[in-house]
Write a structure and sequence with these properties.
α1 runs antiparallel to α2. This protein is α+β, with helices and mostly antiparallel strands. It contains four helices and six strands, in the order ααββαββββα. Strands 2-1-6-5-4-3 form a six-stranded mixed sheet. The protein has a single domain, classed as Nuclear Transport Factor 2, Chain: A (Roll).
Length: 147
């Protein structure tokens, strides 16, 4: 994909993500998409996303998670929630997005403030692969009631 097409797709995806527009999120994702999470959170206690042993979520499950399940399981949505895109770098079919989420952890009531870096691969007008980097220890300390 061309850089400008990738940028448009990622911007559309983030707009849909922040407004919980599930139909547009689905349009932005390949049917066989792979979401690679940090291995340290693979089915970890206190984390909302269920992955395989390598920290991956694939296909339709990605849509279910990103369409609100993860956010609703992880955060108290009666409290303020913010997803702030801080930087976006796009070249060809790749995009790198730095973002910050602030919220209240549902399981503990503790404040959640974490930085993320996402690397997206886009093909044929959709996101085909997404790789997440974040402070998994910070997330665990905020979300895990046993900490």
């Amino acid at each position: 994909m061309k850089t400008e097409d990738t940028r448009t797709l990622i911007e559309r995806y983030y707009e849909a993500l922040t407004s919980a527009d599930i139909s547009t999120i689905k349009e932005c994702l390949a049917e066989d998409i792979v979401w690679q999470l940090p291995r340290s959170v693979a089915n970890g206690e206190g984390f909302a996303v269920q992955t395989d042993s390598e920290g991956r979520v694939s296909g339709e499950q990605v849509l279910l998670e990103l369409g609100g399940d993860t956010v609703k399981k992880a955060f108290d949505m009666s409290k303020p929630f913010a997803l702030d895109v801080r930087h976006m770098i796009v070249e060809g079919n790749k995009a790198v997005v730095q973002q910050r989420i602030t919220a209240t952890a549902r399981a503990t009531g503790r404040p959640y403030d974490n930085q993320y870096c996402w690397i997206y691969t886009c093909n044929d007008g959709v996101i085909s692969h997404m790789e997440e980097y974040t402070d998994s220890l910070g997330a665990d300390l905020s979300m895990n009631p046993n900490r």
